[in-house]
Amino acid sequence: MNIPKELKYTKEHEWVALDGKMAKVGITDYAQSQLGDIVYVELPTVGAEVTSMEPFGSIEAVKAVSDLFAPISGVVKEVNAALADNPELVNQSPYGEGWMIVVEAANPEELDGLMSAEAYEQLVESEAK
Amino acid sequence: MVEFAGWWMPVQFRGILEEHRRVRSTVGIFDVSHMGEFEVRGPNALRAVNRWVTNDVEKLEVGGVLYTALCYEHGGIVDDLLVYRLEDGYLLVVNAANEHKDLEWLRGQAPPGVDLVNATERTTLIAVQGPKTEAVLGPVARGPVLDLGFYRWCRAEVAGVPALVSRTGYTGEDGFEVYVDWDRGPEVWDALMEAGRGVDIEPIGLGARDTLRLEVRYCLYGNDIDQTTSPLEAGLGWAVSLEKEEFMGKEALVRQKAEGLERRLVGFEVEGRGIPRPGYEIQVNGRKVGSVTSGTFGPSVGKGIGMGYVERGVSSPGRQVAVVGRGRGGMAAEIVRGPFYKQGSRK
Known about the structure:
Number of strands of chain A: 9
CATH class of the largest domain in chain B: Alpha Beta
Strand content of chain A: 25-35%
Largest sheet of chain A: 6 strands, antiparallel
Distance between the termini of chain B: 32 Å
Number of domains of chain B: 2
CATH architecture of the largest domain in chain B: 2-Layer Sandwich
Low-confidence stretches of chain A: none
Radius of gyration of chain A: 13 Å
CATH topology of the largest domain in chain B: Gyrase A, domain 2
Mean pLDDT of chain B: 96
Order of helices and strands of chain B: EEHEEHEEEHEEHEEEEHEHHEEEEEE
Helix content of chain B: 10-25%
CATH superfamily of the domain at 20-106 in chain A: RNA polymerase II/Efflux pump adaptor protein, barrel-sandwich hybrid domain
Radius of gyration of chain B: 20 Å
Structural class of chain A: alpha+beta
Shape of chain B: globular
Mean pLDDT of chain A: 95
CATH class of the domain at 20-106 in chain A: Mainly Beta
Oligomer: heterodimer
Strand content of chain B: 25-35%
Strand order of the largest sheet of chain A: 1-2-3-9-8-5
Number of strands of chain B: 20
């Protein structure tokens, strides 16, 4: 299970790549493997506001639908348009080409609440039991 | 791997989409040994089977197979199943989840002179499905397998192992189902995998099994049919012989037919990007008219598809409906007639 050390994580299996106040968000390798083949990804538009721990979109896999939860509050600055026609990028490259949105953090303190790679790894191990 | 009706089974091997497309383009192989098999013999076997099931078994010849339902007295469905006429009796092939329920039910309804044996745990069942299925069975089967017509069976040796082979399946493609003794299963599987290498055979899991069957509108017990649904409501009237002298549930079905159905199982296609799921509501003009029993993304049709019961007045093909999930916006859908995928290689 791939869990890059430089990223932060949430208990809803999203990852966050921080660059100052900009947070790039996607779902983890564990999440995409649990979902299986993804066929639609529903994302917000640029300019939309997202709220920490609330859904910002959803993922339709063949066998299940899953909400996407915002790791932090803020404004959506970028959306990965490639996922509209190529949702399989999330399965193939969850940390790379499968990224979903970039959020400008409204409350930088929220960033401290994100999980480290080690903590996320423990979460995955306990869920996999 | 997941637990399914008491068996440990794979949801997928390489991925549902890939496995689904593999079956539609060349061939896939399924271990469906979880299915239940009952052997019925004895002087009253025909009489018993014909009283149990809705379809007319009297006309079934040795070498033939038919699809039918088992009903309760009130007309609801106990199970859907295949009936094979053997040389000396009948083979009933039932859903894994209903194995014990069906056995108890049938034992309770069996007259004397009927010998009912549960052969499930000594039977391996392997399905080979796809347009290239003959390329897989041909090299390893000795017997008239390739001459089989749809819903016919024969005895053969597959990889030297005595087998019953039928031209049946759950995918809408051409295919065979191979029944062998439990302990010979692995060698038959290996031989079929080897024979299929030239046509890119792949093992297929439960996930693709579901998308394949739903694309051709086959019912799944527990979703589309159950004890609260009658075969008439489910569109399975073609498997019901109301002229038959008697069978369990006949009175209820005759009455239901005379009074008219209150609801019907329909198929629908989603417009746009949405996938219907079991339990979602089906609405017309904001009013609930039914709910989804099966729903998924159909890889070969490229859209969300599903089935559900709706009030008779809104069940015609062409009807526009909204399919609404809990906490989700509605998706526009249209009721359609027949299978969603129509280019299957099924004979």
